[in-house]
């Protein structure tokens, strides 16, 4: 569904504009699509091989060397998924910020846009540093025997950091649009698209909160964590791309 949404986006954009006239959010969307594809691949690999947090220490001691090697590989894919997950979510934010940068914003909101862009970049870096530094040595992230500590297996610190900063930055970005929608000097159809973006953004924040709560209820299950993260990712993709698909509902789009 996520990939289809991106495909639909670029079909619409290339039909309305040529590739030479694509905007920053369009180009950034390609990177986000790559992150999403890599993230999905890592999740599938982790599901196939398993990860260290899916086993108890006693269960790991009973596994053969070949089985332990598979668990280590799955755990490596899971830690790689964290990097792609953070880059994917913050990439979606960058797409929205690029979209807002094309609007005729008052000077105050223009300054807020610049400030929030810096905040988004800094919070992404904080998440990446949390993933990289909260388990030392780094190789313990995929350790099996001896069993790694909680910070290297369940990684609840990653959940809290990524989820809280994700929700806060989403709220900040949406706060730019909230007081301005009806006062913007844009056509009514584009104003409707921005309202849809705002509503979908609120939905994404709600999805992120639910995903955090459901993941923490069963933090020891890689499958549960990845399933709820996937739901959040799909919601984000649909929210960011939905306003761009507006021309599909115009008769002129089909008669170009």
TrEMBL record:
GO CC terms: membrane
Subcellular location, record wording: Membrane
Recorded topology in the membrane: Multi-pass membrane protein
Stretches that traverse the bilayer: 27-49, 80-100, 112-139, 159-182, 194-217
Coiled-coil regions listed: none
Taxonomy, superkingdom: Eukaryota
Domain (Rhodopsin) ranges: 15-251
Protein name: Rhodopsin domain-containing protein
């Amino acid at each position: 569904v996520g990939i289809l949404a991106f495909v639909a986006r670029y079909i619409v954009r290339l039909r309305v504009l040529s590739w030479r006239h694509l905007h920053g959010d369009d180009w950034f969307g390609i990177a986000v699509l790559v992150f999403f594809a890599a993230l999905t691949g890592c999740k599938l690999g982790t599901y196939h091989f398993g990860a260290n947090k899916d086993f108890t220490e006693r269960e790991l001691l009973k596994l053969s060397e070949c089985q332990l090697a598979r668990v280590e590989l799955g755990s490596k894919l899971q830690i790689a998924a964290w990097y792609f997950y953070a880059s994917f979510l913050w990439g979606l934010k960058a797409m929205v910020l690029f979209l807002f940068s094309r609007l005729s914003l008052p000077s105050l909101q223009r300054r807020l846009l610049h400030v929030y862009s810096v905040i988004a970049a800094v919070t992404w870096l904080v998440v990446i540093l949390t993933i990289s530094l909260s388990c030392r040595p780094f190789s313990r992230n995929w350790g099996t025997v001896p069993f790694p500590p909680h910070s290297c297996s369940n990684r609840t610190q990653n959940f809290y950091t990524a989820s809280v900063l994700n929700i806060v930055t989403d709220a900040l970005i949406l706060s730019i649009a909230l007081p301005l929608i009806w006062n913007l000097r844009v056509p009514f159809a584009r104003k409707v698209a921005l309202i849809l973006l705002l509503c979908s953004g609120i939905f994404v924040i709600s999805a992120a909160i639910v995903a955090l709560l459901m993941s923490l209820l069963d933090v020891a299950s890689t499958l549960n964590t990845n399933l709820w993260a996937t739901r959040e990712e799909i919601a984000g993709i649909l929210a960011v791309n939905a306003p761009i698909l507006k021309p599909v509902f115009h008769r002129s789009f089909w008669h170009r």
